[in-house]
């Protein structure tokens, strides 16, 4: 019997029975809380928006601290994502907070591909978690989860409508991350303009099919407040780390020549609403939605690309082992086919190489024969020339010998005549 059938039978046969006394498993929630507190929590925020909309300032204001970071310029050649992780402690609860900011977003003349680095970054975090999950020896309890839990999308306070860049980017991101749109620096427009701007943004998001994060209303304890806050989206926020004395209290505010804007005054902006919804009420739901919705969608698509399925062609349950075996057999079949193709290709190339070598060998033999014949002809010419030279040398020697002989004979004849004249001369002298 298959394991899935056994599990189905166990689920169908479950009965409710009363307890005769206290057992103690009602302490499981406390155990879970204690274990979670000891392990700590992680939360990852992605801040998307144009340079200069106050992303860093709002993060400092939200978490009531000063995060380190270099100010971004408008001269970036492309969109870059800057990630920083911080360890925060509040009471006995530890939070590993990662803030990812888009540097240079919207600063280029050609903004067509501005969303791509953001999508690639989110997918890379999903892929890293999937690879860890697929390992034989997993350490998910100590693994630093870098998946993005919330995307705060900063909208410029133009008061008119969303830019095409904002619509395209949010449309590309809505299936990958929980998007919470916020109007940055909302004190730059009036109250009436802000109300119309919110309505315009909501209308454009709906008409373009952009799915933003909706605060959950299925939990009775938070259904009322979340339902109310859903109607306030997008939040109009102001950020400031400067504290001013207002009345008898020091409060975060922004000082202007015409007055003071209090960050935590709900009559001035929606900062308190954002903080309540993002951190104090729905942080765990954001983490859960990231895992159960966005990551599961990525995981499913990735496994389907790898060939894994839940059902066979007949829509019957298909176990992972069966899928693995089918994929393995398919892979082995393709591997054998490729091996055969490579073998045939190898044999063909060997034959072609042998033919090339034989042709080259034939050409070498022909060349050798030509050179050998040429050498023999040259050798014969040299021998004939040598013989001719030798004959000329011998003839020259003979002529030389004959000349020397004639010269010696001539010299001897000349000497005898000289002696005869000397004798006649002496004889005449003796007579006188």
From TrEMBL:
<keyword id="KW-0342">GTP-binding</keyword>
<comment type="subunit">
    <text>Septins polymerize into heterooligomeric protein complexes that form filaments.</text>
</comment>
<dbReference type="GO" id="GO:0042995">
    <property type="term" value="C:cell projection"/>
</dbReference>
<feature type="coiled-coil region">
    <location>
        <begin position="321"/>
        <end position="399"/>
    </location>
</feature>
<dbReference type="GO" id="GO:0005525">
    <property type="term" value="F:GTP binding"/>
</dbReference>
<dbReference type="Pfam" id="PF00735">
    <property type="entry name" value="Septin"/>
</dbReference>
<feature type="compositionally biased region" description="Basic and acidic residues">
    <location>
        <begin position="419"/>
        <end position="432"/>
    </location>
</feature>
<dbReference type="InterPro" id="IPR030379">
    <property type="entry name" value="G_SEPTIN_dom"/>
</dbReference>
<dbReference type="InterPro" id="IPR016491">
    <property type="entry name" value="Septin"/>
</dbReference>
<comment type="function">
    <text>Filament-forming cytoskeletal GTPase.</text>
</comment>
<protein>
    <recommendedName>
        <fullName>Septin</fullName>
    </recommendedName>
</protein>
<keyword id="KW-0206">Cytoskeleton</keyword>
<comment type="similarity">
    <text>Belongs to the TRAFAC class TrmE-Era-EngA-EngB-Septin-like GTPase superfamily. Septin GTPase family.</text>
</comment>
<feature type="domain" description="Septin-type G">
    <location>
        <begin position="39"/>
        <end position="305"/>
    </location>
</feature>
<feature type="compositionally biased region" description="Low complexity">
    <location>
        <begin position="407"/>
        <end position="417"/>
    </location>
</feature>
<dbReference type="GO" id="GO:0005856">
    <property type="term" value="C:cytoskeleton"/>
</dbReference>
<keyword id="KW-0547">Nucleotide-binding</keyword>
<keyword id="KW-0175">Coiled coil</keyword>
<feature type="region of interest" description="Disordered">
    <location>
        <begin position="406"/>
        <end position="432"/>
    </location>
</feature>
<keyword id="KW-0966">Cell projection</keyword>
<keyword id="KW-0963">Cytoplasm</keyword>
<dbReference type="InterPro" id="IPR027417">
    <property type="entry name" value="P-loop_NTPase"/>
</dbReference>
